[in-house]
Amino acid sequence: MAKLYFHYSTMNAGKSTILLQAAHNYQERGMAPYLVTARLDDRAGQGRIASRIGIGAEADTFAPTTDLFTQIAARLQAGPCACVFIDEAQFLTPAQVWQLARVVDDLNLPVMCYGLRVDFRGELFPGSAALLALADEMREVRTICHCGKKATMVVRKAADGSVARDGDQVQIGGNETYVSLCRRHWREAVGDR
Known about the structure:
Layout: E1 4-9, H1 15-28, E2 33-38, E3 48-50, E4 56-58, E5 60-62, H2 68-78, E6 83-87, H3 94-107, E7 111-116, H4 126-134, E8 137-140, E9 153-157, E10 163-164, E11 178-181, H5 183-190
Parallel strand pairs: 1-7, 1-8, 2-5, 2-6, 6-7
Antiparallel strand pairs: 3-4, 9-10, 9-11
Helix pairs in contact: 2-3, 3-4
């Protein structure tokens, strides 16, 4: 039975690595995975999922206006597909999460989403909130704070190295921009809430 999965964490937990490894496992067994990533995040190149440890794969992309049910149904028309993998799932719209639920329910195709749970302000991304509400199964991908505790939050660093407290929810960046912290150290960094 197909399910909608949500693998979530903070920055630098290895979500893309896990996605790429799972997709590779399907390919090794002769099954075709379908990889999709956010068009917005082109740090590894447009239509490419890449990990900090150096592995990567080509992928189709989605934008906020993409009808993912239609895109995935078209992919199925082109040939067999065993599973859909969505990277940067925090950038999905709530409507797209419902489209992915329809893929699972109506096309009987498993969909595995990987993304951030919260932004640098400690607020849920809309796509993540919808996935938390609709996913059949959820898994936290863990990473650690500099103190050794589990990191559940992230801070955004400004150009001068200070911690940003305001700004747009979305700003593409990696280690040069974001630092994963436990809640205690996040509160210290942004000023106790």
